[in-house]
Amino acid sequence: MARKSRKNIPEVVSSATVQTEMSRPFRAGLYARISMETEEILERGTIEIQVELMKNFVADTEDISVAEVYKDSDYSGTNFDRPEFVQMMEDIKHGKINCVIVKDLSRLGRNYVETSNYIE
Length: 120
Known about the structure:
This protein is an alpha/beta fold. It has a single domain (25-119), classed as 3-Layer(aba) Sandwich (Rossmann fold). It has helices at residues 15-22, 39-44, 47-59, 83-93, 105-108, 112-119; strands at residues 26-34, 64-73, 99-102. A 3-stranded parallel beta sheet has the order 2-1-3, sandwiched between helices. The chain is globular. Mean pLDDT is 82; it is low at 13-19.
């Protein structure tokens, strides 16, 4: 009997995979922001490094899955009128995400009074 190709066999998602996704109650939005990409900032870290740090954090947890990644480049943290930040807030209102992860709170905002209102 000849061997048959397995290229056209549809991938089956195991019930263990589905169960794993259902057991993760937190659907996280990863938010990264950088004010300006200068030589000094590029040495300290870029948006990609922030996202990588957050993804590593999520990989070490059992109850968080990443639903979306939001990146605002060249936006000040003192202003909350940033395109990806606004989209993230809309996604929270619509239930797409129920958890926000940032590298540190300064990435969320530099106006600490208003930032604490968002945290609350």
